[in-house]
Amino acid sequence: MRLLVVDFDSFFPLPQDPHHPQAPLYAWAQFETPYYLLEAWEERALAFLLRGLPLPQARGWEGFWRRFAFVEGAVLYYADSNALAFHPRVREGVREVVLFDAHHDAGYRPLGEEPACDDWMVFYARQGARLRVFYPPWRDPALEPEPQVPVERVFDPGGAVPGLFHRAFLCRSGAFVPPWADPAFFALLEEAPLPKVALEPLAPRPLDLEALRRRVREEGFALRFLERLRGGGRPLP
User: Fold this and answer.
1) This protein's superkingdom (predicted)?
2) In whole angstroms, what is the distance from residue 212 CA to residue 204 CA?
């Protein structure tokens, strides 16, 4: 059984050079809690809007599914957290995992008893599955610690991926990808040529960007002053 796993954060490029002028704007804490899934993104959006910068967007997801061939009867499971890639309905009989992700998800800290978004690949290794990660071209794998289990790690070369897949899983990774990219995520989900099964409730996250833009227009000076006091990146003009 061959499983395709796709993490939407692979379509959301981040600066890899710490000296990049916008790198401080992407210094985001990432935890799968309600605050980091939604509320934290308001302040992060303001950091861009205050500088007159466009909000970063997901890129390169269009036409993605055309690269794969699936067996008859294959199903796409989806969720917010990549931890659910090891859900009982997803993992049954899997002998190979092919992951498209900006992270190897093969362990970054001491393991818990249950799979988490950053170590679920370890649990597949324990059941004897072969593991492969395709990093997006923008990602620098040297920024990641070594996996805790054997994983083949390569850059995504693009084009058709050889072989058939028996099952697929897609996650949004809402702690890593902002709400304003949700329309792209749901468009990617809709384009998948497979029956779809939700493993947890998933809907577009509410974020009133127009209200944030009004705040910038109406309170710009005060917001700039507060951000400088907090040390929020480079000084604002």
Assistant:
1) Bacteria
2) 18
Residue 43 is encoded by which pair of tokens?
């302040």
- pLDDT at residue 99 is higher than 60: yes
Q: Where are the alpha helices (H) located in the chain, listed in sequence order?
A: 34, 40-50, 88-91, 120-126, 182-191, 209-230
- 124, two tokens: 């597949």
pTM here is 0.89
Give me Rg for the CA atoms of the chain. Answer: 19
Four-residue CA torsion sign, 118, 120, 124, 129: negative
> Which domain, by its residues, includes 41?
25-53+205-230
Cα distances (Å, whole numbers) of residue 141 to 20, 175, 181: 17, 20, 24
Span 46-63, mean pLDDT?
Answer: 93
Tell me how far apart the alpha carbons of residues 128 and 126 are, in angstroms, rounded to a whole number. 5
Residues 114, 225 share a domain: no
Q: Do 37 and 90 fall into the same domain?
A: no
Please tell me the distance from the alpha carbon of residue 9 to that of residue 17, in angstroms, as a whole number: 18
Mean residue pLDDT across the chain: 91
The answer to whether 94 and 123 have CB atoms below 8 angstroms apart is no
pLDDT value at 237 more than 50: no
